[in-house]
Structure formats: structure tokens, C-alpha cells
Design goal:
The chain is of the alpha/beta class and 246 residues long. It has ten helices and eight strands. 42% of the residues lie in helices and 15% in strands. It has an eight-stranded parallel β-sheet with strand order 7-6-5-4-3-2-1-8. The longest helix is centred in the first third of the chain and has 22 residues.
Length: 246
């Protein structure tokens, strides 16, 4: 399907306007909130249209899908973020192809990403993923274990710890959503108070963007509101859903 240029450009503009409005309402600077276009299931042509409309930061959830897009868009100065669950047998290609990784949830993955990151590349910018909902189906370290993982990451040579990330429970209960976003912000603040030099709170998607910004998000991961409904299910996602990454 050919991308609808007007729809993608207008979707981006609507999201940016929404970010500005929420920031203004909460007394925050809109420039302090980074927009990441979560582009899973959208073909390279859609990303190219979003880039033409001014979007330069894209986040991919699944490695195999991303590896088809990155070469196709190599002529564009895109900043690629990996935002999905990480299987240990895929760390090498993630480390080789992305500038950021948001979803480190265990020491083994951090070790492998550091080892696999080439010295010819800048350090890999990373966030540790926190499981703020307590759901068994969600990846992420428990909030009270975040400091231990952070200490491990900062000791690795090819990684640069930038902040924290979370995917809250999918619910219409806004009070519950807000409490989970607040938990991530509190985890971030505790790490900052412990001396970690952090600047990124990666939380908020199309459905909960407002609450995420109100609770302190510095980076929001927006897909549907930019690109429209997801286009298809991919085998890699289905395989991961069979169980948590090893």
C-alpha cells in the first residue's frame, strides 16, 4: 500500500501540536520532550514520508523488520532507536545498527551489547527498562532492582546510560496509568540522586501521551497517531509473544 503523504504529515503535526499543548498546560518546555516515531509494521516508504515532514528519530521493535528498513533508508540521517524486547542472540546486530537501545532489562543483555558494539562507533546510548506494572508478560527490571542494573551498565565500556523506559499496563483506568508513570519518574529521580547522569524518561504512546507528559516524560514513542493503525502482524513478534526473551 502506498503511504498517504498527507495523512502522515498531518499526523505528525497533530502530535507535535498535542505535545506543545500538554507541555504548556503543565508548565514544561515543549522542546524538552523528544518525539520518537514508533515505526513497527510500517514500510520504509512511510518512514521516508515522515522524514520529509521533519521527523528524524525512529524506533523499531523487531530486529528483522528493522534490518529491512535501515539499508533502504541509508541515504537519510535517521537516528535509529531499538525499543522492543531483546533476545540475546540478536544483540550483535542491534549493537551494530542502532544508536539507542531503550529496553535493557538484565545484565546479560547489557554485557552482550557492550561487547558487540564496535569501537569505531560512538557508545551505544541506552535506557534500562523498568516493569512498572508488575505484569509477568512485561519485560523490565523491578523498580527496586533498577539501581543494581544501572550500576552494572555504567561499568561497561561501550554503553552510555541515559535514562529509564517503561511500558505501563494497557488500561482505561487513568489513575492506574498515572501511578505507573509516576513510579518510573520516581525511579529516575532516585537514580539521579544516587549520582547517575541521566536525562531521559522514555514513556508514553499514542493512547496515554497526555498523562505521560504530565508525569515527566522526556521522550514519547508515538506510532498509531502518526502512521495510522498497525498494518500487519510479523513472525518475530509472534515468536516473542510465546514467551519472554531468553
Amino acid at each position: 500500500m502506498e503511504p498517504n503523504r498527507t495523512t502522515i504529515a498531518s499526523g505528525l503535526e497533530k502530535v507535535k501540536t498535542r505535545i506543545r499543548e500538554i507541555a504548556d498546560k503543565t508548565g514544561r518546555q515543549p522542546e524538552a520532550i523528544t518525539l520518537l516515531a514508533a515505526s513497527k509494521t510500517n514500510p520504509a516508504e512511510c518512514l521516508r514520508e515522515a522524514f520529509a515532514a521533519g521527523q528524524t528519530i525512529f524506533g523499531e521493535n523487531y530486529l528483522q523488520e528493522a534490518l529491512g528498513k535501515i539499508p533502504a533508508l541509508a541515504d537519510l540521517p535517521i537516528e535509529w532507536h531499538f525499543i522492543g524486547p531483546i533476545q540475546s542472540n540478536k544483540t550483535k546486530r542491534i549493537a551494530e545498527n542502532f544508536s539507542w537501545v531503550h529496553s535493557i532489562d538484565r545484565k546479560k543483555i547489557a554485557d552482550r551489547l557492550s561487547k558487540d558494539r564496535s569501537e569505531s562507533l560512538p557508545p551505544l546510548q541506552v535506557c534500562l527498562q523498568v516493569n512498572v506494572s508488575g505484569e509477568d508478560s512485561k519485560s523490565g527490571v523491578a523498580p527496586d532492582e533498577a539501581a543494581d542494573l544501572a550500576a552494572h551498565i555504567v561499568g561497561l565500556p561501550r554503553l552510555k546510560l541515559r535514562g529509564v523506559m517503561a511500558i505501563p499496563e494497557l488500561t482505561k483506568a487513568t489513575a492506574l496509568q498515572r501511578s505507573q508513570f509516576r513510579m518510573l519518574k520516581e525511579t529516575y529521580d532516585q537514580l539521579k540522586q544516587a549520582g547517575y547522569e541521566l536525562d531521559t524518561i522514555s514513556m508514553g504512546m499514542s493512547e496515554d501521551l497526555d498523562i505521560a507528559i504530565e508525569e515527566g516524560a522526556t521522550l514519547v514513542r508515538i506510532g498509531t497517531a502518526i502512521f495510522g493503525p498497525r498494518r500487519y502482524a510479523i513472525p518475530e513478534e509472534l515468536a516473542i509473544q510465546q514467551g519472554k526473551p531468553e
